[in-house]
Model the fold of this input.
Amino acid sequence: MFPRGNATVFPEYSESKLRIAARLRSIKSDLRHRKVTYNLGALYTLPHPFAIRACRTFLGQNPNHLGNWSLKSAQKSAATQQLEYEAIAKMIDLYHGKLNQLEGYLTSGGTEGNLFLAWTGRKYLEKRVKKERICLLRTDLTHYSVRKAADIIGVSDFIIPLSPRNWNIDAEGLENTINKLYRRGFKGFLLPLTLGYTLTGTCDNINLVVSVVQAVQRKRPDCVFFLWIDAALSGLIIPFLNSEFSPFFNKMIQGLVVDYHKFGLVPYPGGVVIYRRNLRHLIEKTIDYLPEKDNTVSGSRSGISAVAIWSMMHYFGSQGYKKLVKKCLANKRYFCSLVNEKLPGVKIITDPQSLTCGLVFKSAITLKNIVQKYGLYPTKKTFLFLPEKKEYVIYKLYFLPHLRRKIIDEFINDLMKYNQNQRSKSYEKPRASSC
Done:
């Protein structure tokens, strides 16, 4: 084992391979002791063994995917670049899109996908309005990467109210927010929609939001919008529940973000961004020392992501993913039925097509040991609803492929025991004496 003193000092000489291997084994042992089977609260699952084998096959070649390999010219490209072309084409087919209208590339994940579309969207809007008149709209549930993207591209971001009924974008609140900002001088709006919010699994109503935007444009023709969909988790769930899912059918939707390392069972990184072909020129940069052009956020990317994603597409196919989604949804429904039966004081926030649940307890509690055992993370924040703000503590749960029903039963039993202990403690408190 390495001495502790060496932890922060750059090594002067070559170290023994045996000592290096021993250190790595120690770290691997630590990772193995993490009980992924008990993970309910983190959007993390282990990759499929077949995806791991596929990745190992190409580690020695270290393929680099600089640029966009979903272009028509990439059809003649060799090796793993051809796999990226095929993977993007297959995702466009899954969403019933058209290859002559859409393209994309493989990203490090949803954060990069949202940044790419926010950046592209700002460039798109700048063709019509000045940058200082562009802003980004989001809800209190929108993934933090959208707020981060607004900061990076240098635009202000504003909160849209949530619907208290569905925990998604409120139509009236959206229109009111746009009108208020228009009166302040904003005329260009970046508007990401979410299918499967991280905390609740709830989904924005795409058609309803688009109808609001179109109504605003009829009243205010100088307003311009750029809409995209963040479907990091649900983008690989909804298509296998609804074979008609066609997000690009609506002309106002410019792009979509989805991750294969969340539900697709590939190792990190495994993200995908798809967008309309006419947008690429807005951000494309020439590379003076190479024949390729860079039209991505990350520049050089590992081709091994393409290998993993392409392999799992073919390993499962639509039918395999449908079975996997069906199994995970059955676990979620089983969990919800137990909560409704045995924990009536707990409110569940979710969407029928989501593998995510948000749990809200009537009284503010700290689950302590339960939080550690199941990887839960309580999120306490104030949410803007229409017509008022409300504070909630939400525990998010994900019903991913690794989860087994015996773990669900154990979790419910632990919650019931915790509730019983809390009640018994409250009974032991001395009552105030009456005068």
Remarks:
- Residues 426-435 have pLDDT under 50 and may be disordered.
- The longest helix spans residues 304-342.
